[in-house]
Amino acid sequence: MRNFFWYITLPFRILYKFYFAGIFLVTSIIFFPPAAILVRNVNNVHLVYKIKRVWASSILILSGIIVVLKGKQNIPKEPAVICANHTSYLDILIIFYMMKKTTVFLGKAEILNWPIIGAFFKNMNIPVERGNKMKAAQSLQLTKKALEKGFNVAIFPEGKIPDYHTPKVYPFKFGAFNLAITKEAPIMPVTYETSWKLLRDHHNLLEVGMPGIARTIIHPAIHTTNMTVKQEAERIKDLTKEIIEEPLKKYYS
Asked: Three-state SS string across 151-194, please?
């Protein structure tokens, strides 16, 4: 049931979402053309990633989102599989902001059809069609090659943003953990504590939209050396979900 505060803040939420969309559009128009040209040469991949970091940081700063990172010392030096809960459209921007090492995303193939962000995603990230087992397997092979090249791979194991108004976590899918164990790459669990309060569904103007502090926790890495998918994937999947979910249970209990 919506209270009086919800109604009196409604105009501000709507205005903020238009403001955020404007910042997103303008900064994308500025940063996308040089990135689109440079990315045609594979040797420019790290430079293009730096451009994306500046783009993401610009959006966050101009929209009044202050990212507070806890556990920066836990970021692995070697290529890692980043696993985070998915709560907001800020989540991808925050990963760009916090990860200096070139990071590629494994995300749903529908992103390719999104205006602007689809173009950013296309050439340096990995789309996956979860309903197509053959194409999903091909995507997994591409993520393995990305780790071999020294890139981080960021995956949201829930596969979507939950439809809740509280930061609950959907069951995790196995892809991230099969990948990490197969390549013996560390898993870097990340918890977004407050992003869901700042910007949620972009299709619904009435949903949350406001500036504020995006508290983000980087947990100690889970090392997968000498593990096997058959014996350990289920346990590591459950362990990662438990680690990510624990701060949310404490904070919102």
From this structure: CEEEECCCCCCCCCCCCCCCCCCCHHHHHHHHCCCCEEEEEECC
Q: Distance (Å, rounded) from C-alpha 217 to C-alpha 223?
A: 18
Q: Quick one: pLDDT at residue 121?
A: 62
Q: What would you report as the CA-atom Rg of the chain, rounded to the nearest whole angstrom?
A: 18
Instruction: Give the C-alpha separation, 248 to 253, whole Å.
Output: 8
Q: CB-hemisphere CA count at 13 Å for 239?
A: 15
Q: Cα separation of 46 and 106, whole Å?
A: 17
Ramachandran angles phi, psi of 73, nearest 5°: -70, -10
- Looking at residue 119, its pLDDT comes to 60
Residues of the chain where predicted confidence (pLDDT) is lower than 70: 1, 108-124, 127, 129-133, 135-136, 164-165, 201-206
Tokens read off for 61 = 């700063």
Alpha helices (H) along the chain = 4-8, 10-38, 45-62, 91-98, 117-124, 133-148, 175-182, 195-198, 229-252
Give the domains, in start order, of the chain with CATH numbers. 4-252 (3.40.1130)
Q: For residue 162, what are the CA distances in angstroms to 113, 135, 171, 243, 249?
A: 21, 24, 10, 18, 16
Given a contact cutoff of 8 angstroms between Cβ atoms, the answer to whether 96 and 103 are in contact is yes
At residue 202, the pLDDT reads 59
CA distances 186 to 4, 151, 180, Å, are: 47, 12, 6
Structure tokens at 44: 């420019």
Q: How far is CA 179 from its chain centroid? A: 17
